[in-house]
Design goal:
alpha+beta; Ribosomal Protein L22, Chain A; six-stranded mixed sheet; five-stranded mixed sheet; about 30% helix; globular
């Protein structure tokens, strides 16, 4: 299974959030998806933090501020701002947060929109994928762990590859299964063991999902979609 390191060569554009309204609307084609990502290295100035927090309505303030670690607060905030930014880029208008809802499985969606999105974050990086098809995204920071404890998640063939290649392969495969699970959108109702990884796609319940994995610094990120996926990547700067 091929994976890619995100670099200047595969970035389609760098977007500066404060210049958002200067960018022309981008039409998402049926066979492509967009990945927006942001990596933070330090805290915002308190006034800048308040500015970005106040873009969100009060109900989202509560969701952001319930986290105790500042890194978790940033990831929660940035994830929602990436949706806000993506709506402007791909729909040509500011997002009315009253349309930012969750379905019965807890999967966020935009009411009355043909754009699908999915958010994930890990460590100091938040990502959001956008597509006209169902899409799932997962990012995980690579840490040392005992990879032999996950035979309830990976089948024999997958475990053999993980045992051979170590933690890096584990996180690649883990993000594939999580991304597919999120694209399907049934939450914990899908056993990850039932998602089978086959080269550039994954299979669940006879449905095939196209997958593409990237390495962002010390993290693996996978995008899953039901179509032949051309991925356009945009780095976001605040």
């Amino acid at each position: 299974m091929e994976n890619h390191i995100i670099s200047e060569q595969n970035l389609s554009q760098t977007i500066v959030f404060s210049d958002l309204k200067t960018y022309a609307q981008t039409n998402i084609e049926a066979d492509e998806s967009y990945l927006l990502y942001y990596t933070f290295t330090e805290k915002f100035d308190v006034n800048i933090w308040d500015y970005y927090l106040n873009i969100l309505p009060e109900k989202f303030h509560i969701e952001v501020l319930r986290y105790r670690r500042w890194q978790d607060r940033y990831n929660c905030l940035i994830g929602k701002l990436l949706v806000y930014l993506g709506h402007y880029l791909f729909c040509g208008s500011s997002l009315e947060f009253s349309r930012f809802l969750k379905d019965s499985y807890g999967k966020p969606y935009l009411k009355d929109s043909n754009i699908h999105f999915n958010i994930s974050h890990s460590g100091n990086t938040a990502v959001c994928g956008f597509s006209k098809q169902e899409i799932g995204v997962d990012i995980e920071e690579i840490n040392d762990l005992d990879v032999t404890m996950f035979d309830s998640v990976f089948n024999l063939d997958e475990m053999q590859k993980i045992n051979k290649d170590g933690a890096s392969r584990f996180y690649e495969f883990w993000t594939v299964k999580e991304a597919v699970s999120k694209a399907i959108g049934k939450g914990l109702g899908i056993p990850l063991l039932d998602i089978k990884i086959k080269d550039q796609h994954a299979i669940y319940n006879n449905d095939e999902w196209q997958i593409k994995s990237y390495k962002i610094e010390n993290k693996y990120c996978t995008i899953a979609s039901g179509i032949s996926n051309k991925i356009r990547i945009k780095e976001i700067r605040f």
